[in-house]
Amino acid sequence: MPNTNEAFVKEHLEVTRRWLLRAGTASAVAMSGLPLRSNDKLSGPELQAAIDGLESYFTKPDDFRDVSRGKPKPHSLDEEQRRAVGLTRETWKLEIISDADNPARVSKELTKEKETALDFNGLMQLAEKHAVRFPKVMTCLNIGCPLGMGIWEGVPLREAIWLAEPRENLRRVFYYGYHNDDPKQMFRSSQPVGRVLEDLYDLPPIILCYKLNGEWLTPERGGPVRVVVPEGYGFKSIKWLTTLVLSNLHHANDTYANGNNDLDSPLKSFAATLSVPNEIKPDTPFAVTGYAQVGVSGLSKVQVSLYKEGDQLPKDDPYFTKAAWQDVQMLPPPGAWGGGLPDGKIPAHTMGFEDGRPASWPMKLAKVHWATLMPALAEGKYRLRSRTVDANGHAQPMPRPFRKSGHATIEQVRITVKA
Length: 419
Prior knowledge:
Distance between the termini: 15 Å
CATH topology of the largest domain: Immunoglobulin-like
Strand content: 25-35%
Number of strands: 23
Strand order of the largest sheet: 1-14-16-21-18-17-22-23-15
Shape: elongated
Number of domains: 2
Order of helices and strands: EHHHEEEHEEHEEEHEEEEEEEEEEEEEE
Structural class: mainly beta
CATH class of the largest domain: Mainly Beta
Largest sheet: 9 strands, mixed
Oligomer: single chain
């Protein structure tokens, strides 16, 4: 039985049989350094069952993994409680204030006390002119698998900031959400104002997000309004947003700094497996599937390497740069996107898409699936590794191998070949 990550393998990924046959033929090549046995019957059908079991490209909102904080977690409040604390669309209000300790000069603050805070109707008025949507994989800085992949819709954060009419001494914007009226539970993140006001390097804007895959954000996903930072890890995309603070602070003051995390690292590229057999018989080709997170540096290829346990690996090579790596096939854009999108279609004017198809593939800040048919092996125990090579030619975990700046560890999966 395949060892499949149940958090992800829930829906069928549709690909054409033509691709399957092509991928099966291309993948059936011997890998350097392995005690392989020849098999002339390698073909597409061995791959099809594994690919049929893959997750859909986009994740249904209810199927996202949850790593929320709070005691109790805000999304666990009942409807009446959420209404009372401003966590429904009818009662939500966003305060935009100057930092009392490091004040930015603004012409007016938007506060609940003065009844000038931005409400949901006001946000929708901004959306009539400024709404944007884009695909993004939501992922945690310290977890080696995405939480989910979706199309996020909202209003650029800057449009709300301009309502306060900032004038000078504005260097940073920090923000936080509802935290049960307990200051000790506050979870805060921040951005330099330059990134908020200008979308550099072809990045989508940072948004006040109110929809995921065409549906209003649920409480579990941070609704009614959350921040979404396209290139950022999850701690930058604060849920249950209540407050924007305009500050002259010169450095990041995110809550995540307390865990010795690198606060400014954007998404990295990395690969991992989804379906791998724990045990197979000799003379039996086997299918492997996986996904790759596509970071800010893009993705040129995914590779795997297979070694028999006990075989001598090159010394002084902690990142396996001298291992025998074999390219595998990245799957093309799917015929059905999944994720519960309205009518199953990409919403019009989604950034990165043209007429419902990706403008480039694989898309940055997203994910891509990969699959390969491994050749038959002799009896023994093996280790399968997978990695990405980004568009600049850097093989995972380079160019940023350090754990606290985002997961990029090369995954190792054990396989037993036994008669």
